[in-house]
């Protein structure tokens, strides 16, 4: 299992150092949660902050946009150095146009689905996507409980991708740690986001390698 520590749980007063710490601890990707206080009831950071910390690692920057209008801001995140940009299917932007914009910059693109959104919602876009991110909590905050009932979505999406001969990465986000990673792996998830489980661990390297072992 690949692991993407969510910087949402880091010490924001030293985000650069926290990225270096996660890099050394063996993180596969860095997960950056962008919240606008409109799409979700919380505000984090935007493209200027991501651009400022980009230099602290060569690992891929996985930018998760929890914002109402990703199309309007996609260029900013592309220019900030994102390697993967995911945005919510429940947003207000035109989905096809947003996918095209990200892809045309040679950045990997993914759609995110909230817990109440069925897996089938992404089917019409699968052909164009590199990744689907399944939320296993309601987006907005770290430290929530894992929703195991989201796991059947993995197989639904993988089956549909197979039908159209498409290789798709499935990522899951929210509540993943020692007690839930086995279920996530069993369900066929390729990469798990982990905030609390990694940042609040005494030894981040141990925490990451334990999760990666699944
Ligand atoms: C929630 C964010 C997640 C969150 C995960 O809206 O998208 O990335 O930080 O944190 P944990 O692992 O603590 O649930
Ligand atoms: Zn996230």
Q: What's the arrangement of strands in the largest beta sheet?
A: 1-8-7-6-5-4-3-2
The counted number of beta strands is 8
Helix content: 25-40%
Strand content: 15-25%
Cα end-to-end separation = 5 Å
The hetero molecules present are:
D-xylitol-5-phosphate, zinc ion
Protein architecture, described:
The chain is α/β, with parallel strands linked by helices and 214 residues long. The chain is built from eight helices and eight strands. The protein has an eight-stranded parallel sheet with strand order 1-8-7-6-5-4-3-2. Helix 4 links the parallel strand 4 (84-88) and strand 5. Helix 3 (70-79) runs parallel beside helix 4 (95-104). The longest helix has 12 residues, at 152-163. The termini are close together. D-xylitol-5-phosphate (DX5) binds at residues 6, 8-9, 31, 33, 64, 137, 139-140, 142-144, 173-176, 193-197.
Summarize it.
The protein has helices at 15-24, 47-53, 70-79, 95-104, 152-163, 181-186, 196-199, 204-212; strands at 2-5, 30-35, 61-66, 84-88, 108-113, 131-135, 169-173, 191-194.
